[in-house]
Amino acid sequence: MSEENTPVEENQAAGGNANVPQFALQKIYVKDMSFEAPGVLESYPEWKPKVEQDLNTEVGKIKENLFEVILKLTVTVKPAEDKTAFLCEVHQAGIFFVDGVEGVQLQHLLTSAAPQILFPYAREAIDNMTVRGGFPPLALPPINFDAIFAKAMQEAQAKAEAEQQGEKAH
What we know:
Elements: H1 7-13, E1 22-36, H2 40-43, E2 50-63, E3 66-78, E4 86-99, H3 103-132, H4 145-169
Antiparallel strand pairs: 1-4, 2-3, 3-4
C-alpha cells in the first residue's frame, strides 16, 4: 500500500516554504440526499411555485489539518400556501486540507470559502432531483457566503459587546 503525501509534504519536497498558508480540497462527496414529492397532484397542471431555501454549514475536524465541511441545503417548493409540491435536501460534503491558518481566517475558510466550493455541487444535485421528480428544472441563485460570514461575525461581536455591557451593569 503506497503512502500519500499531504500538500505540505509535497511543498517541502519541492523546496517550498512550509509556512505558507495552504487550503486545498481533498475530496468532495454527497453525505446525504433526499427527495419527497407529497403534492405532485395539487401542483399539476398550474405551476407557480414559491421556493423556500434553508442553508446550514457544519464543520468537523478529522485530524490535524484535515476538516470535513458539510453544506446542508434544503429546498421546499409550494404551489400554494399550505401544500408542499416537493422537498429536496442534500448534504454536500468535502474534506479540506488547511495549514498555516488560524483563528478568524481559519473560520472564514471553513465557513465561507469551503461552502462556496461545495455550493455548485449541491445546486446541481437539487436541480437533478427536481427534474427526475417530474418537475421543471430548479436553478437556485448563487449565494454570497462572504456576506453571510460577515453578518455572522457582526452578530457575534454585537452579542459579545451586549454581554460585556450586561456584566458591567451587575
